[in-house]
Structures
1.
Amino acid sequence: MPSHCLNGGGWILGNLIDGTQAERVRIPHADYSLYAIPAGADDVALVMLSDILPTGFECGVLRGCLKPGDTLAIVGAGPIGLATLLTAQFYAPAESILIDVDENRLAWAKKLGATRTINNSDGLAAEKVLALTGGRGVDVAVEAIGHAASFDVCQAIVAPGGHLANIGVHGKPVQLNLDRLWSHNLTLTTQLVDATSTRRLLRAVSDGRLDPKQLITHHFVLDQMMQAYDTFAQAMAQQALKVIISNLP
Amino acid sequence: MPSHCLNGGGWILGNLIDGTQAERVRIPHADYSLYAIPAGADDVALVMLSDILPTGFECGVLRGCLKPGDTLAIVGAGPIGLATLLTAQFYAPAESILIDVDENRLAWAKKLGATRTINNSDGLAAEKVLALTGGRGVDVAVEAIGHAASFDVCQAIVAPGGHLANIGVHGKPVQLNLDRLWSHNLTLTTQLVDATSTRRLLRAVSDGRLDPKQLITHHFVLDQMMQAYDTFAQAMAQQALKVIISNLP
Amino acid sequence: MPSHCLNGGGWILGNLIDGTQAERVRIPHADYSLYAIPAGADDVALVMLSDILPTGFECGVLRGCLKPGDTLAIVGAGPIGLATLLTAQFYAPAESILIDVDENRLAWAKKLGATRTINNSDGLAAEKVLALTGGRGVDVAVEAIGHAASFDVCQAIVAPGGHLANIGVHGKPVQLNLDRLWSHNLTLTTQLVDATSTRRLLRAVSDGRLDPKQLITHHFVLDQMMQAYDTFAQAMAQQALKVIISNLP
Amino acid sequence: MPSHCLNGGGWILGNLIDGTQAERVRIPHADYSLYAIPAGADDVALVMLSDILPTGFECGVLRGCLKPGDTLAIVGAGPIGLATLLTAQFYAPAESILIDVDENRLAWAKKLGATRTINNSDGLAAEKVLALTGGRGVDVAVEAIGHAASFDVCQAIVAPGGHLANIGVHGKPVQLNLDRLWSHNLTLTTQLVDATSTRRLLRAVSDGRLDPKQLITHHFVLDQMMQAYDTFAQAMAQQALKVIISNLP
């Protein structure tokens, strides 16, 4: 469990010390966290492997115990939700339902492999998922936002015996409906990415089973740093998923 | 998952239809739920296998993924908590900490194998468990009461990467502290007993690895039915764990 | 483990009693083994679900613990090997290497998703697989023929920590090279199909993730029964995989 | 899988370089393989944790997937077999059957927790185990010698769906009876000890759940080195299990 390593390791960059927006950077415990970029690989695509793809894969897909033939619902079609969707396809789910309030993001989800999308602007997503699944709910529900409302959708739609994999960073406690769920054979998980899947994901990129570039919507050069941050801050309005800042013109 | 079987099965007796306090009873789907009592077995002891032992074992020990060497805490030293404690010993935990507010029940817990007991009358159980475990918490925390307060102890003491196995029947929602736990690599489970472990438990009783009679504190005959119920209703005051009603004098 | 059920169940048809080439048939323990064909489904395609697809999936893919990104080798590109190949794709292996001596079958394998094929007519398949994998070998080796020679290829190519899933029906003992493999962290499995995956496979056919018709090469009507058997008996020469006999003209 | 680590690590001492019978020794990759001895611990007892206890536990108990209530048979009551027996008790098997040809070792096995012992001098151990288990065989069979004959006992007695965990170091190939076992739902494993359980075993010794000293039969000082080796070379005749050489009088 590298994410919780007490003795060196754990979540350091961007948490305990500053991140890496610099020309050179000292990486603590580099032996355990750096990977050689394969010859001929696309540097820009591999930026997606530094965080969101292992996060979606480990905290959503693997912790959610997704199996071939499962029905999967992902609440949140932002970059993390879409990274979950992309890597979920390694397990051939029968259905991948993406839920969001933004039509543009749901259109991206469709392009990236969602079998259905639900716009939850009307707050009826849970009812719709239950209707789609004959009242049973989904095998795996992934919370990819970090809000009480999206957590509530997840706990309403997970089937008996199902998995609720929380990825979202929550700022407040949530209500867990144990009055209904105590007998539901539920497995609820939380996880800080361990980045133990990086090698596997690198291989998937190399052999074409995974195309991380699909998550990149905007490119900036270093001089446009502030503009890049502004774009990402208003990601939904700017129709942005991930934003790349590079020193290449 | 027999507990949630839609097509016959599921939780029927005492839930969808009346229970079995009668001289004869028709058991739906009996092929899947009745077991022959081995010759020479103690009928009275085996009553404990009808519910609390599989509940403690399946919903607490197995769902909590208890492993040899783990530190286990059980919140609630009533019959279900003690059934969990008894069956936890199949997995040789390093520590079995029982938490309750009743000294008599904690004394029972000691007798049944708890390595430590904590009286939570002062509301400081969580702090004490953290102190005992060097601040890390326990590998497996079992909620065996069904109250928000006992759930709170569990979520406060489960270590990063640990398991919180809820057994208690909750009448209300609880607060889940995802603001702290989102990154805790927590696995939280709920479970309605499936009784799939009955055969294994029967064997454990037969070969002496499990002594369920230890959970029985009171015996009544049929004429004392009301007295038996009164005793169980005031279990703590009566120092009662499980109560047997039989037609034998 | 339905395949070894002692108390009713187990492998009955074609083993303890005659098979089902008749217009009507009495199926023992039918409650556990018959599935309703979904409306609109293709009867002929679903014949493939009666045996070879669950066999390849359960005995090869699931018992071999295939994971996304694994390197898979299947020795034998007959119907069972190809059923393994088709269902392996639910787990997105990085490489699926099919080994056989028949070019026609290897061409089928390519069409059905093999990333590489090796013609073992020269007996050098093991060396070639080791060369392809930098000397390490494959994560999962599936024996899909039932001969000592194909078993030998598997035990030569499985990587340390890998899985050797035997599906083939062997008429004789084989030699297991424990002098080399005792320290190899090998997991070797055998399995009689349990058909517990039938519902999942039915769903995969229904939603288009699996196309079993690809395994059918020849169609006959009942009057051509003997011709159908002759064709299957000389499957390799006839370029036959699976043969359908129906009462439809 | 530290035992097969290519990049530093793996099995070095006593394999690629000389072992540690010296007053000082340089340990390659010491960060990953040395553990601090807890204050107050018995140095001599902990010698058993350097090899045989993790070997028995990891290669026999864990790889054999022993579960509470299982029937376990261990073929070979030498130090490795007895280390397997001791650590198997973490999982509360219903039966632990030890098989050997030496009455003294079988008497040790009884003392260390075997529920039954079988002297295989007559070559009838397999028949006796099958008779004891109603013809079904055992859930877990552990090969702890490294001979074809002991492997044969294991493959004869493992039940359908069971595990055959090979620990023994084999000098020659064995015959694997796939003509019978192809349909037996067998899991056969081999394993070189990874020593990943050392911390857990240390804790089990510290809290009294495991007493490794029981495996030590003879003590020598450095001056008696040759005598110690002679004793171990004729272990059976000398009624020796493990032999300690120390610099303490």
2.
Amino acid sequence: MEFAGKYDQLKATKVSEGIERRIVKTENLLLANVEFSDGPTSEPDPFHSHYHEQVSYIADGEVFLFVGNEEKVHLKAGDHFAIPSGIPHTIQRLTKFVRIIDCFTPIREDFL
Amino acid sequence: MEFAGKYDQLKATKVSEGIERRIVKTENLLLANVEFSDGPTSEPDPFHSHYHEQVSYIADGEVFLFVGNEEKVHLKAGDHFAIPSGIPHTIQRLTKFVRIIDCFTPIREDFL
């Protein structure tokens, strides 16, 4: 069992152009360190949803967060958000670089 | 339902002298933004364990991470760690200020 997940030793997965993901996990919990270097983006990404619950920490940069039909919220480094199971959500990057720490339960098997 | 957890709007709980915690959560997932301003500490905190699984991101500062009988690991801002259910662990702060983003499943009822 590897407890420590040093940044330099984690495998980086290219999600799409300008988006990279590194993960650490336990049995039912997955942390994804997601780096977006494609900002600022001119519009939000398409909404998506998943049955996994999600809590997130904005480590770097600024975004608009969109959740369901709620008014968008301006979040910046140091802020957080929480997405219950099945709720549509998305972000728009407001800065060149954005890093978000996303945690999910259960495991995002699609990230492995 | 409040999706956004802006830092300035979250309630800060004083855990002990020099340690503060802010949380956001969903049904089965809790994120704790823990600020330690008591460093550097001359020795590790006592080991503790919990049945909750934990994944963590070091947002600021540097620590030694101790897990079970493993050799301690030097982690710094940008690094991560993962603690399965029931495994004893602790940290020692190596810098004045340390911020760790701890995520747990299930909810840490003791943090509410």
